[in-house]
Write a structure and sequence with these properties.
By secondary structure, this protein is an alpha+beta fold. 27% of the residues lie in helices and 36% in strands. The N and C termini lie far apart (47 Å).
Length: 220
């Protein structure tokens, strides 16, 4: 092999290694975080919100510690009678809207979001029971705590909710979930946001990020 060919082959190998190195680093970062950072595990972080009532309920979502992803929604209710506990999962319906705010300053109180807010997704929802456990009460009149997932009721809603869950919400950005409740709710209820920390990425925000999915899993 002539010196020129050896040089060209060596140059091609070097260029290939150089081109592949960002993806190797990306894969290593994601693998390390998924194995050793407990906050990266799905649903590892939960944030309680205030009670939802019939009508419009606006709730701000803003994580200031790390990029967040995998957001899912839950509704819990506490100290319900046996009858109310059994009825709760099947008696609450509404619509959830997911909005992007231009800045945290746009999270202003009022019956509606600011005009600059962008509706990213919207879907009708119901509740799916996770757990029903007795918690206190008196003999013959026990009380129960009930946890339910807020789940889409349509195929398009499932697709929209999955898109929101896969979104990476960068540190400090402001988002809003509006819950338009069509039914009455137990006074003791609360909405819960469950999510996780997004694995670290050196490619986040670049066109190369999606190319890492076959190596280290989806960029979530």
């Amino acid at each position: 092999m002539s010196p020129l060919i050896r040089f060209l082959v060596g140059l091609a190998v070097f260029a290939g290694i150089l081109a592949a190195s960002p993806f190797a680093i990306e894969r290593a970062l994601r693998a390390y975080d998924r194995n050793y950072d407990p906050y990266v595990r799905p649903g590892s972080v939960s944030a309680d919100g205030s009670a939802l009532v019939k009508g419009i309920n606006r709730r701000l979502f803003r994580e200031v510690r790390f990029d967040a992803t995998g957001v899912s929604l839950r509704m819990d209710a506490f100290a319900l009678s046996r009858y109310d506990a059994e009825r709760f999962p099947n008696s609450v319906t509404g619509t959830v809207r997911f909005l992007r705010l231009q800045s945290p300053a746009d999270a202003k109180p009022g019956p509606a979001p600011v005009e600059s807010a962008t509706v990213m997704a919207e879907w009708p929802f119901g509740l799916k029971q996770r757990e029903n456990r007795q918690n206190g009460g008196e003999p013959g009149a026990p009380l129960f705590d009930v946890e339910c997932d807020i789940v889409p009721l349509t195929a398009k809603g499932e697709s929209d909710a999955a898109a929101v869950s896969s979104l990476i919400m960068q540190t400090g950005t402001a988002w809003e979930f509006d819950f338009d409740m069509a039914t009455e709710t137990p006074p003791s209820n609360r909405v819960v946001f469950c999510y996780s920390k997004a694995p670290r990425s050196i490619l986040r925000g670049t066109f190369l990020e999606r190319k890492t999915e076959p190596l280290g899993g989806a960029a979530k």
